[in-house]
# Entry
Amino acid sequence: MIEINQSVRNISDTARWVAYFRARETQRSDALFRDPYAERLAGDRGFHIANTLPEGNKHEWAWVARTYLFDKFLASEIQKGADLVVNLAAGLDARPYRMDLPATLQWVEVDLPEIVSYKKEMLANEKPKCRLERISLDLSDAPARRKLFADLDRRATKIVVLTEGLLIYFASEEVGSFARDLAAGEHFQSWIIDLASPGQLKLMQRTSGAQLKDAGAAFKFGPADGPKFFVPHGWNPKDVQGLLQTAAQFNRSPKGLLPVVLDAEGAAGNFPWTGVCLLSKP
# Structure
């Protein structure tokens, strides 16, 4: 049995929470994507977290829009010739199994040992559609991640990086360091991230963020200058899409909420904005 007072034990449990929303979307007749592995990966704990955290299942539209946009940007980068996908803090993402991918594509997932072990066990009898490798690593360990990035840089000529749901747990100076580490790799060409405005960050900190903080997963990153934060660290915003604006396109957004449209040059400030950004080298 899962105890109510232990909804989120650690940062790895947030991956089970996110998988819950992919499972919910997959059940819809008009699903924007289908992830047949999400329900299994979320498990009872994922469903429990979503339904016990403050506002834990209130913003389903946002999680769905985020997944959709990551899929969209990633598929485009692969079509343009990316030969290695590096998914950092991959969580319980099943894209190597569910997306239409070239068999020759290299895909490397990196996450904490507990989540990597759990994922291997749950997907042991499934076959990925590309060349998949999993690496256990704490990405907050700067020397270790730099060593990993240097190794990955030698494996391919056009690398696309995913950090879905990762950067918000880092402080601004940590994100800057992380961005510079990635930019140092000659073949790291594009980077897909999700981003929150300062206004959105404050909202999240007041709701589910309070309990996540107690579990060592505090929300920290919401830069005042928006996507332009990454420019001095080696990355230019190439495309920026808001979650609410995307949800509205598919009649998924909550009634009464009007999307703040943000481009690569903009910053939402105190407006509650979240989005997905495609960054590229200058």
Q: What stands out?
A: Confidence is low (pLDDT under 50) at residues 1-5.
